[in-house]
Design a protein that fits this description.
heterodimer, A: 368 residues, 7-stranded parallel beta sheet, B: 302 residues, 7-stranded mixed beta sheet, 10 helices
Chain lengths: 368, 302
């Protein structure tokens, strides 16, 4: 059954806003309600169309009233912050993520109108360590349970959502574990990180990175909201790249630093809200994480349009590379030409100095 | 005379003599190097979900290992015909020599001496992937963590997987116990083969034991550094960095007849008795062929 009234939390961020706008375009949906603590930017507000914006904090019980009075039937929970910088420190971030989710779920449990709950979760729940299997399926769990930060929050949130699903078996719950987003418009930890001209990484480590294009993220969320998939699915593009490869393809300069130095640099940059080098982020940048997307393709029924490689290429088109690939190609081609010319010159000189012995005028003679 | 064969003579002897194709000239090699450099600088190469970097392996890592393989250890490979040309297979080998050179040499052996130039995807201990540089290089060379999930994924993908079930017990054993197989873990490799129906190819490696003969083990230092052992060889640490040069022992690598597992069915992986029996069978086969190879080898260094 298609949704009638949809509530989307976190609409002031790019992805939340884009989803609300997409749903608002769908005429079969009667009402789209967007909730966030901060009002959306004027540009975002224009895009939101007929979405009704409610400035509310999901951390207080007001949200319950919104759900009950509008008789919301589908809730999309996207108000999960992945960086302390975005929400004013680790304390408020945890509060927003965990307490916010608990409040929202409490409100949903009360509201009998709710039939569907979509959670934007993260593949961070699998952690990142040297003891991980190369590819995570939905049935696997983190080998080293994340002890703090966003990954811990995501694990807690999924736990609360699972117990909500147990208490309200009539609600279809879809938990989508997204890999890192990338694209020309989306703002994520990774895009911030890769926008720097010099990208510091941990010396001697190279992570496997799986990316998801923003358009695919949006399409998956829309389909999850309007469809009837219930369960957990990993969402990521086909294929992987190494972090060093990603940096090179973007024409960035990689600066490998010993891990302890990177730690202090991280504390320094975090103070200015610039780039997050939390221990958790560091582990991800050292080991990376890859998920299996069979469930997404076969049960959920969506194949991402962009592979990891294509998604990165699309993002790369919006950046001005520090080392443009054309320059590298030009230099190597010229060098190759030079080598070929030197080679042929040396060859002809050599030929003149030491002429090749004439081919022996011997002939095999046919046996009689 | 029905058994007589007609041997075709060259129809025309006036054809110009074709010189034998020479190996790539130096300018072609430099041009190839520059092209490689371009690919590396722009990230224009493929890596798989395990972090395997075929471009780097073929152009840097294997060429670095090759002199060690052919000149230093003069490795002789036997029985490559036992390794299938396509499809999954689990190569199970003995582990020895303090430093996992045997794993590297087996990789080169299968790539260079096998007609299908097969790549051996090694399964390594978690310690390997914890270490900086070594961990990421191992992944680029095609290794991944020794766990059932990864082994099964590689086998279902039709890859040739290399495993050393003795683990640190084998590689870090004292020299006096050379060529005696240690306990074979918990038989995880057999369950992986059974679940995927991949054949198990026993592999015996002779020669690695003498590369770094371990005559002592400084356990306190090992514990301090978080290593499973800290080796003392006749040359290390006495001669400092010179002690890192492996002794030029003569190597023999033999691949035995594959042990087929598909007929047991995937559910057989749940039968511990069968798993134990197969583990023992593989272990016995490798031990037996180790003894045979040792008899074949005239001396340690020739």
């Amino acid at each position: 059954m298609p949704p009638v009234v949809v509530l989307v939390t976190g609409v002031s961020r790019w992805l939340g806003g884009a989803l609300a706008a997409e749903l608002a375009r769908d005429r079969s949906i009667e009402r789209v309600i967007g909730v966030d603590t901060i009002p959306p930017s004027p540009e975002m507000l224009r895009r939101l169309g007929r979405t009704e914006f409610v400035r509310a904090d999901i951390r207080n019980p007001l949200i319950g009233k919104v759900i009950a009075t509008a008789s919301v039937d589908t809730v999309v929970h996207m108000n999960i912050s992945s960086t302390p910088a975005g929400s004013g420190g680790r304390g408020p971030m945890k509060e927003l993520n965990v307490i916010g989710t608990m409040q929202l779920l409490a409100a949903c449990q009360r509201a009998s109108s709710v039939r569907r709950f979509v959670l934007k979760s993260s593949s961070a729940v699998y952690g990142a360590s040297s003891r991980d299997p190369a590819v995570f399926t939905e049935a696997m769990q983190a080998r080293r349970v994340p002890s703090g930060g966003f990954a811990r929050d995501s694990l807690d949130i999924e736990g609360y959502v699972r117990s909500f699903a147990r208490r309200r078996p009539d609600v279809g719950v879809a938990a989508l574990r997204f890999t890192n987003f990338i694209g020309p418009r989306i703002d994520s930890v990774l895009t911030h990180f890769l926008r720097m001209p010099l990208v510091p990484t941990a010396l001697g480590y190279d992570a496997r990175v799986q990316l998801l294009h923003e358009d695919d993220a949006l399409a998956v969320l829309t389909r999850a909201t309007t469809g009837d998939f219930a369960g957990t699915a990993n969402v990521g593009g086909e294929g992987t790249l190494l972090l060093s490869q990603v940096i090179r393809r973007l024409g960035r300069l990689q600066v490998p630093l010993p891990s302890p130095a990177l730690g202090s640099l991280g504390r320094f940059t975090r103070r200015f809200g610039y780039v997050d080098y939390s221990p958790e982020q560091m582990r991800f940048l050292n080991f990376g994480r890859v998920v299996d997307t069979t469930v997404l393709r076969e049960e959920f029924g969506y194949t991402p349009r962009y592979t990891t490689e294509q998604a990165l290429a699309d993002y790369a088109s919006t950046l001005t590379p520090v080392i443009p690939p054309e320059v590298v190609t030009g230099v190597t081609t010229r060098a190759q030409d030079l080598v070929a010319r030197v080679g042929s010159a040396a060859g002809s000189v050599g030929q003149r100095l030491w002429p090749a012995p004439p081919t022996p005028g011997l002939r095999a003679v046919r046996d009689a | 005379m029905p058994e007589a064969r007609v041997i075709q003579l060259r129809p025309d002897d006036d054809e110009p003599r074709v010189p034998p194709p020479s190996s790539a000239s130096w300018e072609e090699q430099v041009a190839g190097g520059l092209e490689f450099l371009r690919r590396r600088l722009t990230g224009d190469y493929d890596t798989d979900e395990f972090g395997f970097d075929a471009d780097l392996t073929d152009h840097v890592l294997l060429p670095l290992l090759r002199p060690l393989f052919s000149r230093w250890f003069r490795v002789e490979t036997h029985g490559v015909e036992n390794v299938p040309d396509t499809g999954g297979g689990l190569v199970v080998a003995n582990h020895s020599g303090t430093v996992p050179l045997d794993a590297m040499m087996a990789t080169v052996a299968l790539h260079d001496d096998h007609p299908a130039r097969r790549r051996l995807r090694l399964l390594g201990a978690d310690l390997v992937f914890d270490l900086p540089v070594i961990g990421s290089l191992s992944r680029k060379l095609g290794s991944t963590l020794a766990c059932n999930e990864d082994a099964e994924r590689l086998l279902t993908g039709g890859e040739l997987v290399g495993v050393f079930p003795e683990g640190f017990k084998g590689i870090g054993k004292p020299f006096r116990e050379r060529y005696t197989l240690q306990r074979f873990g918990r038989g995880g490799f057999v369950t992986a083969a059974l679940r995927t129906g991949a054949p198990i190819i026993p592999c015996a490696i002779v020669g690695a034991e003498e590369t770094y003969p371990m005559i002592g083990n400084v356990k306190t230092l090992a514990r301090l550094l978080g290593l499973p052992y800290f080796p003392v060889t006749p040359t290390f640490p006495a001669l400092g960095p010179l002690g890192l040069v492996p002794l030029p022992s003569k190597w023999l690598i033999a691949f035995g007849e594959p042990i087929e597992t598909a007929s047991y069915g995937p559910s057989a992986a749940e039968d511990p008795m069968l798993v134990f029996n197969l583990t023992d069978q593989v272990r016995e086969t490798i031990q037996q062929s180790l003894y045979e190879l040792l008899l074949q080898r005239r001396s340690v260094f020739s």
